Amino acid sequence: MTEVFEAVAHRDGKWWTFKIPALSSPSPRGGGHRIVAMGQARTAAEVESVARDLAATWMDVDDPAAIDIRVTYRLPDPVGKNLERAESLETRGRAAISEAVALRRSAARALTEAGLSQSDAATVLGLSRQRVQQLVTT
């Protein structure tokens, strides 16, 4: 079974610094402090691999492939907010496209069931005959 850990990474000068919050141990100094597994990579693309190796070492696992790392990148506020907004718009856009396809399918079926040929339905709907055929058969 593959273990899954989150690595939280942020840009730190020329490096990407990351920590794996789930991997920690008590500090030798005590006082309730903990040492958290941390590392760094030169590129964002390297974070996952370096974090996987660190987790394997931390946990004394022989095969790093047995560990799955999910990287979360902490970005400056304007960038993070823009990405959240973009994802929201994309989600709404996909939902709108799905709804539009369902409505076109309904219209194509209604016209062909009313006796129009697929060619005539295509002309009326502004679609190709092949697209109407797809809509009425799916």
Structure report:
By secondary structure, the chain is of the alpha+beta class. The protein has two domains: 3-74, no CATH class; 80-137, no CATH class. Helices cover 51% and strands 28% of the residues. It is built from four helices and four strands. The chain has a four-stranded mixed β-sheet. A hairpin with a 7-residue loop joins strand 2 (15-26) and strand 3. Helix 2 packs across helix 3 (118-125) and helix 3 packs across helix 4 (129-137). It is elongated, with a radius of gyration of 26 Å. The two termini are 39 Å apart. The mean pLDDT is 93.
Number of domains: 2
Strand coverage percent? 25-35%
Q: Count of helices? A: 4
Shape: elongated
| Helix residue percentage | 40-55%
What is the number of beta strands? 4
Query: Can you write the helix and strand succession as a string?
Result: EEEHEHHH
The low-confidence parts are none
Mean pLDDT across all amino acids: 93
End-to-end distance, in Å? 39 Å
Side by side, the strands of the main sheet go: 3-2-1-4
Q: Biggest sheet, open or closed, and with what strands and sense? A: 4 strands, mixed
Radius of gyration: 26 Å
Query: What structural class should be given to the helix and strand makeup?
Result: alpha+beta
